[in-house]
Amino acid sequence: MTGSSVVRPSRRTPAVLLYLLAVCPLFLALLLALRAPRMHVLLDYWHVLAKITGDDGSLLPGMVFGYHLDQPFVLPSLLFWADAAWFGGDNRVLTVLTVAMVAAVVVLLHLMLPATTAPVRKAALTAGFAFLLLSSHAAELWSQGTNGISWVPAVLLSVLAIALAHRGRFWPAVLAAAFGCLSFSAAFGAWFALALIFWLRRDARYKVLVPPVAGVLVLAFWFLTKPSGQQSLATSAFDPDGRLSVVLAAIGGLWSADVAVVAVLAGGLTLALLVLPGRSAVLRRVHGEPLRTNDSGWIGLAAYAVALAVMLGLGRTTAEAPSGNAGLISRYVLVAALATCALLALAALHRPAVPTRYVVIAVVAVGLVTHAIGGTKADAVRRAYEPLRTAAVALRLEAPEALAALHIQPSVIPAARALGGYPFTDDFTLGCHGLELGGHVELAQAWPSKGAVESDGALLTGWATVSGSDVDCVLVTDEHGTVVGGGVTGLTRPGAPGGAGWQAVAAPGTARPQVLVSAGGALYRVAGDPVRG
Question: 507 and which of 151, 162, 436, 484 could share a cystine (Cβ 3.0–4.6 Å)?
Answer without folding.
Answer: 484
